[in-house]
Amino acid sequence: MNFPENLKYTKEHEWIAIDGDIATVGVTDFAQSELGDIVFVEIETEGETLAKDEVFGTIEAVKTVSDLFMPLSGEIVEINTALEDAPESVNENPYDAGWMVKIKLSDASEVDSLMDVAAYKELTGH
Predict the structure, then answer these.
(1) Using an 8 Å Cβ cutoff, are 48 and 76 in contact?
(2) Domain around 86
(3) CB 27 within 8 A of CB 16
(4) pTM, whole model, 2 decimals?
(5) Could you give the CA distance from residue 30 to residue 87 in angstroms, rounded to a whole number?
């Protein structure tokens, strides 16, 4: 199980990489392993400004469909269109090719509410 230390995490099993006022978001290695084979990622919120905890898309695995939640408030400035043709990237490389969206942050102080790697490992029991 891979838990990069330079990332932030949510209880919804999303990872967040912060670069200035842009946050890149994806699902964690733990999440993809729990979901199983990812067959479809649907994100149609590019250009929208959403509040923290709002749904920005869905991820579909063989057995289930799960909502994707905004870890931080902001505008979705980019979506990973490569996932349309290769949703398995989420399984194969969740922290690189499997990223989902990039968000221009509305409120940088919300970053303080995210978990660090130690807290996320504790949440997942790893």
Answers:
(1) yes
(2) 8-106
(3) no
(4) 0.96
(5) 16
Tell me 106's DSSP state: S
Distance in angstroms between the alpha carbons of the first and the last residue of the chain: 8
Give 68's DSSP letter.
E
The reply to whether 29 falls in a domain is yes
Angle (CA) 110-11-99 rounded to 5° is 80
Q: Which tokens hold the place of 71? A: 């870890």
CATH number, position 26? 2.40.50.100
Mean pLDDT by 10 residues, the chain (126 residues): 96 97 98 96 97 97 95 98 97 98 97 97 96
Q: In this structure, what token pair is assigned to residue 103?
A: 């968000």
The amino acid present at 98, given as its one-letter code, is G
